Amino acid sequence: MPERDGYIPGVPCWVDSNQPDPEAALPFYGGLFGWEFDNGMPETSEAKYFIARIRGGDVAAIGSIPDGAPARAMWNTYVWVDSADETAKRVRAAGGVVVQEPFDVMDAARMAVVADPEGAVFSIWQAKAHNGARVVNEHGTLNFNGLATRDPASAETFYGDVFGWKRLSLPTGAMWTLPGYGDHLEERSPGLRQQMTQMGAPEGFIDVVAAFDPIGDDDAATPAHWSVTFGVDDIRAIAARAVELGGKVLEGPVDAPWTRIAVISDPQGAIFIASQFVAENRNLTA
């Protein structure tokens, strides 16, 4: 697909990682995904925010832990909105929490940090100069964001009220869709809908914006949260390389519907998913 230059409201658009030592994280991600970095903060700032790029296109960022944020390494999901202020109001009205009120990020955007009724934290992004990830859905770039939830019905109501998302039930699991997103993608990439049909994608899949991952009753330790998935060409090679670079493979590689995945922790403890597209896994169930 061509490089992105913006998104439509309700679509995850950016990811970044809070790190206790941002500079120490750069060799890991650079060595794992081939990212090149540029510090987006003024030289006089004590805080760091390293923009990661592939072929000169923004893919993610590694930054300092913001004031008031949990003092641990983690990956964060951002959803594109027309108005951070109005969306924050909808979050409250739908039973969520505004963790950090809308504020301007220099000339990049206006954003807010929010949480759904279960406490899954994410950010909303009203773009100004920064239009989110430009390179996606290829090796070393953002491939998916997913909500892990204990209360699917509550989540369906909340995200439907805030973003207009719908739950798409599939034999392989469930997904979040945004009605009309497929039309937007088809406009950007003519023929995409036909390509997905030929590939065997289920009806409605072109409207998918995120994964919907219920947490099992036997998993008492995992809180509701948003996850970040990066696409890779060879999951086994990536898992081995992550260990060489000081990370840990927490799960996998394992086969999943359409994919082969591994759950990986970087050296400072930020967890993400690496996913290889495997067409022959299309009929696997979640």
What does this structure look like?
The protein has helices spanning 22-33, 84-93, 152-163, 181-188, 192-199, 235-244, and strands at residues 12-19, 36-39, 49-54, 57-64, 74-80, 97-105, 109-115, 121-127, 142-149, 166-170, 173-177, 208-214, 225-231, 248-256, 259-265, 271-277. The protein has 286 residues and is α+β, with helices and mostly antiparallel strands. The protein has two domains: 12-127, Roll (2,3-Dihydroxybiphenyl 1,2-Dioxygenase, domain 1), CATH 3.10.180; 142-281, 2,3-Dihydroxybiphenyl 1,2-Dioxygenase, domain 1, CATH 3.10.180. The strands form two sheets. The chain has an eight-stranded mixed β-sheet with strand order 2-3-4-1-5-8-7-6. Strands 10-11-12-9-13-16-15-14 form an eight-stranded mixed β-sheet, with helices on one face. Strand 15 and strand 16 (271-277) form a beta hairpin. The longest helix has 12 residues, at 22-33. It is globular. The two termini are 27 Å apart. The mean pLDDT is 92.
